[in-house]
UniProtKB/TrEMBL annotation:
Site (Transition state stabilizer): K38, K261
Superkingdom of origin: Bacteria
Name of protein: Acetylglutamate kinase
Compartmental location: Cytoplasm
Similarity comment: Belongs to the acetylglutamate kinase family. ArgB subfamily.
Domain Aspartate/glutamate/uridylate kinase as annotated: residue spans: 34-279
GO BP term, pick one: L-arginine biosynthetic process via ornithine
Reaction catalyzed: N-acetyl-L-glutamate + ATP = N-acetyl-L-glutamyl 5-phosphate + ADP
Pathway field: Amino-acid biosynthesis; L-arginine biosynthesis; N(2)-acetyl-L-ornithine from L-glutamate: step 2/4
Amino acid sequence: MSTTAEVREQLAAQDKAATLIEALPWIQRFAGSIMVIKYGGNAMVNDDLRRAFAEDIVFLHHVGVRPVVVHGGGPQINSLLERLGIKSEFKGGLRVTTPEAMDAVRMVLTGQVGRELVGMINAHGPYAVGLSGEDAGLLQATRIGTVIDGQEVDLGQVGEVTGVNPGAIVDLLEAGRIPVISTVAPEVDADGGLTSAVLNVNADTAAAALAVALGASRLVVLTDVEGLYSNWPDKTSLISALTAGELRDMLPSLEAGMIPKMQACLTAVDGGVDRAAVVDGRMAHSMLLEVFTTAGIGTQVVPEEQA
Ligand SMILES: Nc1ncnc2c1ncn2[C@@H]1O[C@H](COP(=O)(O)OP(=O)(O)O)[C@@H](O)[C@H]1O
Ligand SMILES: CC(=O)N[C@@H](CCC(=O)OP(=O)(O)O)C(=O)O
């Protein structure tokens, strides 16, 4: 006869097995497919979480998915700017980027955050290679402003992606590597010619453009909230799934950092990505739960036909 403790242990073991078995159809379905994972600066809360993120990426790689990491670093840029005595200013969720701020953005994204993520992934083996949008013509961008109260507002060296040349990423994936991308992009002018400037591209926006260009099966965005709330900040209003059309209707009412994030999900799904999701990067392994469980976690954006 089993004791209560033994029965509990058996049930816990069966739960673990059930979780693994639930993942099986998803592992089969995603074998060989590209997933773009956007890791937001606000989700890089501590080393334990960063390590859990690196484990998840290496896990994806080893079950046959081809992950491409696109990272942010907004709070990390803020702290360098603060040390330099430069004020951080955001309009419409985008950083007003002076030439001095642009130097700091490039240093932090490509030189610090990207390097740290590459190092954490490579603690598991020689997988990750860091790239910036400047490398091998990966990204091209043009300057954008934003409209506030009907007025066009200049944001300085802020860009939107106008071209993606994913060859360098494809080469790395073919070689069994994990590309880690920072979202600094060379500027192109109205005629498509390269200028001498580089632009600061919001990482959500760049991740969506890359997911579309790479024909990704998923865009997963890790941030510092559980997902999209219909009535922010009411924590009972978390949306678990919505269609692209429902999101399009909701976009004008969103605020702050959620605007580029949800616009990115919409761009990805409109551009052929099967599903885009916003998940809580403060919860270890949330990305695996999103990708390999039937219910997922966080907020999923799906095309109309999947609803
Ligand atoms: N409707 C909403 N649902 C969820 N979060 C929202 C909403 N509106 C605004 N937010 C804010 O957006 C933030 C996420 O954006 P951001 O700070 O830019 O994240 P990241 O650094 O991950 O890109 C949340 O922490 C939250 O404060
Ligand atoms: C134009 C613009 O706002 N660029 C962002 C780029 C980094 C980013 O997007 O980081 P998160 O994902 O952590 O927010 C910035 O300068 O903060």
